[in-house]
Write a structure and sequence with these properties.
Blueprint (H helix, E strand, L loop, with lengths): L5 H10 L5 E5 L6 H11 L4 E5 L9 H17 L4 E6 L7 H14 L4 E6 L3 H11 L4 E5 L5 H8 L3 H7 L12 H22 L7 H13 L7 H7 L6 H13 L3 E6 L4 H5 L4 E4 L3 H4 L6 H6 L1 H23 L2 E7 L2 E9 L2 E8 L7 H10 L3 E6 L5 H4 L9
Parallel strand pairs: 1-4, 1-5, 2-3, 3-4, 6-8, 10-11
Antiparallel strand pairs: 6-7, 8-9, 9-10
Helix pairs in contact: 1-2, 3-4, 4-5, 9-11
Length: about 400
């Protein structure tokens, strides 16, 4: 079975002395449970695996019961160390408070019980971690499958990856495009909105939230003002409501609204957002083109190409902890500006020979970025860029 790079990271963390609760987090359907099960098969360490999938949400005592069972097993068998794994932990109300209580009890009594938590909701996991587990946990971030992973495991071509994205569960459906789109719509989009956003956040207009995602995703890689969105969407209310919905979609790992790069924070926040999906299939499911039609339409493929590069950048930003912006001043623009600890990287995506890249030179003169590069025609090959470790850019 194919093993993702994060496999070794999880093994290394578990084999370390007990220090922190390890939390595997990321978007839905990217293989978090699968990679953890692969790790458990290889570990030379006793463990117990529990899933909160079918446990009532209000039954917070269930987490304590799992802990008690592991403690009892450790004591009865005289084990020096044991690993407790809980899947879908975010489904339990107040899970983080219970985990904090049990973890601190083990620490106080010198019990060598290591803990690995995973869940399918970035939103609910991050909320619980920030509220109760400060200083007690480490994140292991996972994201959508990269181009090399989809190529090596499923035989995807570069064009297929740019159009169909990086969801392994749907890879076998690429020859049936209608079925592929239906799977993404139901298993990814609707499930994420219903179980990760609406379940925990009071939303006055759920239909508007879905419309916001659909419109923003279809414009992925392009600027679209919230004022224009208000004019297009039904019952849209005001720009503040839409901005909050975009923020929630960003937290869920679906759609980001990139701000304009500026030294001035106020100008950044007031800028027109550039929408960008985290995985390109979230854009192409709303495209009127099939895969074959999109490749033959130069303009349509240009938008798909630019959004696909952006999706990789945004997903890597989540894993590698860097910020992503765009830059535009009059007729000059740069597609993506990356920032991490003061280091700035400028990336221009060139989908065809006609696209002007003069904005990159202007940006270099104004901001002196650490790295400035073109991806695509006349620059770094897209296949090479989608295979690189983006940490090397900083």
């Amino acid at each position: 079975m194919y093993k993702r790079g994060v496999y070794q990271t999880i093994i290394n963390r578990i084999n370390e002395p007990r220090r922190f609760v390890q939390v595997v987090m990321g978007p839905r359907q990217v293989g978090k449970s699968t990679v953890v099960k692969q790790v458990l098969q290889e570990l030379n360490l006793p463990y117990r695996f529990y899933s909160a999938d079918n446990v009532p949400a209000i039954n917070s005592a269930w987490v304590s019961n799992c802990w008690a069972a592991v403690r009892s097993l450790k004591e009865s068998k005289g084990l020096d160390c044991i690993l407790l794994v809980i899947d879908e932990i975010q489904k339990i109300v107040n899970w983080s408070e219970v985990v904090k209580k049990e973890w601190d009890d083990d620490t106080f009594h010198d019990r060598n019980i290591k803990v690995l938590l995973l869940g399918s909701s970035r939103v609910l996991l991050e909320k619980g971690l920030s509220e109760s587990l400060g200083g007690r946990f480490e994140e292991i971030r996972m994201t959508h499958w990269s181009y090399p992973e989809m190529r090596d495991c499923f035989g995807f071509s570069l064009d297929q990856y740019l159009f169909y994205g990086g969801y392994p569960g749907a890879a076998s459906l690429v020859n049936d495009e209608d079925r592929y789109r239906q799977y993404i719509q139901s298993a990814i989009v609707e499930t994420t909105i219903n179980k990760d956003i609406l379940l925990d956040t009071p939303i006055g207009k759920p239909a508007l939230l879905r419309q916001t995602f659909e419109l923003g995703a279809s414009y992925s890689g392009q600027l679209l003002s919230l004022s224009k969105m208000v004019g297009v969407l039904q019952d849209a209310g005001n720009t503040t409501t839409l901005a909050e919905y975009v923020h929630l979609l960003d937290e869920a790992g679906m759609l980001g609204g990139l701000q304009k790069y500026s030294i001035d924070t106020a100008r950044r926040r007031a800028s027109i957002p550039k929408f960008q999906v985290y995985n390109n299939i979230l854009k192409t499911i709303y495209s009127p083109y099939t895969f074959e039609q999109a490749i033959l339409d130069r303009k349509a493929w240009g938008h798909i190409f630019e959004s696909g590069i952006g999706a990789y950048i945004l997903s890597q930003a989540f894993v590698q902890h860097f910020e992503v912006f765009y830059w535009r001043e009059r007729n000059d623009e740069v597609d993506f500006v990356l920032r991490k600890k003061g280091s700035v990287v400028a990336i221009e995506v060139k989908s065809n020979a006609e696209k002007n890249t003069a904005g990159l030179e202007t940006f270099k003169k104004m901001f002196s970025p650490r790295t400035a590069l073109i991806v695509g025609d006349g620059g770094l090959d897209a296949e090479e860029f989608l295979s690189m470790d983006m940490r090397t850019l900083f």
